[in-house]
Design a protein that fits this description.
The complex is a heterodimer of chains A (about 270) and B (about 575).
Chain A lengths: L23 H11 L3 E4 L6 H12 L3 E5 L6 H5 E6 L2 E6 L1 H8 L2 E5 L6 H4 L11 E4 L4 E4 L5 E6 L12 H4 L3 E4 L5 H12 L3 H16 L11 H12 L4 H13 L3 H14 L4
Parallel strand pairs in A: 1-8, 1-9, 2-5, 5-8
Antiparallel strand pairs in A: 3-4, 6-7
Helix pairs in contact in A: 7-8, 7-9, 8-9, 8-11, 9-10, 10-11
Chain B lengths: L12 H8 L4 E4 L7 E2 L3 E4 L5 H16 L5 H4 L6 H20 L3 H6 L10 H9 L16 H6 L11 H11 L17 H6 L8 H11 L52 E7 L4 E13 L15 H8 L4 E8 L4 E2 L1 H12 L9 E8 L2 E8 L14 H18 L3 E9 L5 E7 L7 H8 L9 H15 L4 E7 L11 H17 L3 E7 L5 H8 L3 E5 L2 H4 L3 H10 L20
Parallel strand pairs in B: 1-3, 5-11, 9-10, 9-12, 12-13, 13-14
Antiparallel strand pairs in B: 2-3, 4-5, 6-8, 7-8, 10-11
Helix pairs in contact in B: 1-2, 2-4, 4-6, 15-16, 16-17
Classes of the chains: A alpha/beta (about 270), B alpha/beta (about 575).
């Protein structure tokens, strides 16, 4: 978790595909120039992580991702001493590394971490741009290019797990939602490696499920799910079977709901 | 919440909802009737194959979605079956042709032949003319103008209109004989006094009459629990052109004609008949639907009760890991390294190096069941009715529990006879208690009666299905005076009592709070006796011991009795 878990996500070869819907790319670029921290919000699987990856690639910065979880301590973020032989050695945490390197530090699902943990990012997220490492007794100035990005999924957590007001007011907020059908189809086609026709059909299914009113579904079909289904198609499965496995069965365990979703999907997919 | 059945037309409900663009359920029409819709349900022919039913759903859903069945157009078809058929033939072809561009299934099913019209109005125009038209295929079903126009505009997820809200208030209007707040506050009206009898030295009789006169539309059918001659007045069959649908029509039907009643959908529950010492199977139909009237956000304020919050904070029920403890079941690596560093440095700190799990985390799920019936309209000297007290208590409790991280839902319930017990979802578990939800709760107007047992049973089902936490608590806020059509006194009390008992055997804790009501203690005991209960003039009076009440209710379930004791209740699907 400390030393090896946060290598840069960016792979040099392939640029991640992200198509801007409104002005989010310009907002992010402007924030990056100023080093302002960014808060991304949006439903599950709408492309928050992909957006950050794409921006990091575009800006030519390393991206260090940390997934928030309940037991995440501030030591997990900042770093800690470890014992080697008879000595202690200091090991940087992901946040400290990003501060030193001038990378983008992406804290995914930040609200899952306890609120006292997230407070360590406060001095980094305002004009000070510095990280006090109290165990070393030093304060690190953030290297130019360092940027803090956090994401969260509003309405998904309990009230106890919300972002502190004092935290969120330091951020530039960018709201992401599912992309318009043609862009989403392009993304699905690109990511899953299927033809545009199949991708369009998948997006139509996703769109229909998202537009249903008054369903017992907790979550709707995300872009990620559509890509999964597309992946199955690319592996040679038929479209119906792929959608059934990757979307319908994945969305609910209730046989009633699965049956009803199956009917809807069946009507929307092209006839074989 | 409807039992599953692979071949049931319910499987088309998402398809229908998608086509119509609004929540729409699918059910079977009585045998021999052609497919039709009333705007909330698509009725498909009973004895057809799945694929034929699918076609019927497609047409009816598409008609609704395209706006072909808007009241404006349908009104012109009323009482003119021939015109309706011609209109259907044109419109059905038109909407299917339009749909075929979006939905491949429609392309396959759409009948061959050109559509001749482009808009619904044009179709109506042509249908009125003398042009010869081919009959619609049988699977187009029929258009039932009276059904569409009569359909209650309040229902499961229906779009609210101005009419909904206006009529909702209308139903709750307190008749003149009752106190209207200004004069005689807190006293019974003169007419009710006539009924007071020194022999009955309690409010029960007066309460009974206030129920009867307060919101009654007609007298009951007889003694509670008696074999009722259920009114079979056909309110819906002979409406004049100017008739307006009521939001919650009182249509009591016989057991044999349930499918054609308004109360299609929902779930059926048994009721305990204390006189014969048996259950009446499938006796009450309970429908839950979200209350979706647009709220006035300025009314979203909720009283804050600091004491209540502090008390409820103590209710930690799940394990939570605490670091750097003296004792525990796992090592805290950070603390251990620090300890070693300190030891090497020549300092020996206390050895707090363990992770300890203690019961501090919140994993309580609470469903607050609020009595939204008209029985709670009597007021106290401050001009606050029992309903106001209960509503405020529900809001305060829900907000407090949600802030503390518990799963909370708030449902209001009211009934209009056994075929129409309504559970209004004010805050379902899956949603946040937003300002809109709070405002809706604050503006909830009492109406109808109190069929407590059925409400409790359905709330228990919701709790079981949706809460997802190991500790489940049903919090009933009621004046403890169950009353409904054929549901009163000993019969009603025994049924509510029984319903609470059932839930407790199924591992759901029950806590009944009676706030601001003047119901005598012994009556409360008869109704809520099997569960924890408490009464007080205001919520603040109960706050100091709210943690005790919660814990007492939950404690008896600490050792759940699984296995043999579980009784399967007869439940039936709708239709």
């Amino acid at each position: 978790m400390l030393t090896s878990g946060h290598r840069p996500v960016r792979s040099a070869a392939k640029a991640p595909l992200y198509r801007a819907v409104t002005n989010e790319v310009e907002v992010f670029r402007a924030a990056a120039r100023r080093g302002l921290p960014v808060l991304l919000k949006g439903p599950t699987g709408c492309g928050k992580t992909r957006f950050v990856e794409a921006m990091a690639y575009e800006l030519g910065r390393n991206l260090i991702t940390v997934a928030g979880h309940e037991d995440l301590t501030s030591a997990d973020l900042v770093g800690r001493f470890l014992l080697t032989g008879g000595e202690t050695t200091w090991v940087d945490g992901p946040l400290t590394r990003a501060v030193r390197e001038g990378a983008i530090c992406y804290l995914d699902e930040i609200v899952e971490a306890r609120q006292d943990t997230t407070v360590v990012i406060h001095p980094l997220a305002d004009h000070r741009r510095e990280l006090p490492v109290d165990r070393l007794g030093i304060t690190l100035k953030a290297a130019p290019g360092f940027q803090l990005v956090i994401s969260y999924n509003p309405g998904y957590q309990s009230v106890l797990k919300n972002i502190k007001e004092s935290t969120r007011q330091r951020f530039v907020a960018i709201e992401l939602d599912f992309q318009p059908a043609d862009i989403e189809a392009e993304v699905v086609a690109h990511e899953a490696g299927v033809d545009v026709q199949t991708a369009r059909a998948l997006v139509k299914v996703g769109d229909a499920i998202r537009k249903l009113q008054g369903t017992p579904l907790h979550e709707v079909a995300s872009t990620r799910m559509l890509i999964l289904a597309g992946g199955l198609v690319a592996e040679g499965l038929d479209l119906r079977g792929s959608v059934q496995s990757a979307i319908v069965q994945a969305l609910s365990d209730d046989p009633d709901v699965v049956g009803a979703l199956g009917e809807l999907v069946d009507a929307i997919l092209p006839r074989p | 919440m409807i039992a599953s059945d692979a071949g049931s037309p319910d499987r088309f409900r998402f398809l229908a909802t998608f086509l119509a663009g609004r929540p729409l359920s699918v059910t079977e029409a009585p045998a021999g009737e052609a497919a039709h819709t009333d705007g909330q349900f698509v009725f498909v022919s009973a004895d057809r194959s799945i694929s034929e039913q699918r076609r019927e759903v497609l047409v009816q859903g598409a008609l609704l979605g395209a706006g072909s069945l808007d009241h404006r157009l349908v009104r012109a078809l009323r009482g003119r079956p021939k015109l309706a058929r011609r209109y259907l033939a044109l419109e059905g072809r038109r909407v299917l042709a339009e749909l075929a561009t979006r939905i491949p299934l429609a392309l396959v099913l759409a009948p061959k032949g050109e559509r001749t019209t482009l808009t619904a109005d044009q179709s109506l125009e042509v249908a009125r003319g003398r042009r010869k038209l081919a009959d619609p295929p049988e699977w187009f079903g029929v258009i039932r103008p009276s059904r569409l126009l009569d359909a209650p505009t309040v229902g499961k997820g229906a779009q609210p209109s101005d009419k909904d809200r206006r009529l909702e208030f209308k139903l709750t209007e307190v008749p003149e004989v009752h106190d209207d707040g200004d004069e005689e506050q807190g006293e019974e009206s003169r007419i009710l006094k006539l009924f007071e009898n020194p022999l009955f030295n309690s409010n029960t009789l007066a309460d009974f009459f206030s129920k009867l006169f307060g919101v009654s539309r007609s007298p009951g059918d007889g003694a509670a629990g008696g074999e009722m001659q259920v009114r079979s007045i056909g309110r819906g069959d002979s409406v004049g052109p100017n008739a307006r649908p009521l939001p919650i029509p009182l249509r009591f039907t016989t057991g044999r004609a349930l499918g054609s009643a308004v109360g299609v959908g929902g779930a059926l529950y048994p009721e305990w008949d204390v006189h014969n010492n048996r259950y009446r199977p499938e006796w009450c139909r309970v429908i839950d639907f979200p209350l979706i009237s647009p709220p006035d956000l300025s009314a979203a304020g909720v009283q804050h009760d600091e004491l209540l919050r502090r008390r409820l904070t103590r209710l930690g029920l799940g394990p939570k890991v605490i670091r750097r403890r003296q004792d525990g079941d796992n090592l805290d690596i950070d603390a251990l390294i620090d300890l070693f560093v300190d030891l090497h440095a020549g300092y020996s700190p206390p050895e707090h190096v363990y992770l300890e799990r203690r019961k501090l985390a919140r994993n309580l799920g609470v469903l607050i069941l609020l009595d939204a019936s008209g029985s709670a309209t009597e007021t106290d000297p401050d001009g606050l009715s029992v309903h106001d007290h209960q509503r405020r208590a529900a809001a305060t409790l829900a907000v407090t529990l949600e802030q503390l991280g518990d799963r909370v839902a708030v449902y209001g319930f009211r009934s209009h006879g056994r075929a129409a017990v309504h559970l209004l979802a004010l805050k379902p578990f899956a949603q946040r208690f937003s300002a809109g939800g709070r405002a809706r709760l604050n503006q909830l107007q009492p109406a109808g009666y109190t069929r407590l047992g059925a409400g409790i049973r359905h709330a228990g089902e919701i709790l079981k299905a949706e809460v997802g936490t190991p500790n489940r608590l049903l919090l009933v806020l009621s004046d403890g005076f169950p009353y409904d059509e054929g549901y009163e006194s000993r019969y009603a009390e025994a049924d509510a009592h029984k319903a609470l008992e059932e839930l407790r055997t199924e591992g759901i804790a029950c806590l009944c709070l009676s706030i601001g009501a003047s119901t005598p203690i012994d009556a409360l005991h008869r109704v809520f006796g099997s569960a924890s209960h408490a009464s007080a003039p205001t919520l603040a009076d109960l706050s100091p011991r709210m943690d005790e009440l919660f814990l007492a209710a939950l404690k008896e379930l600490a050792a759940p009795n699984r296995g043999g004791l579980r009784r399967t209740r007869p439940r039936a699907r709708s239709g």
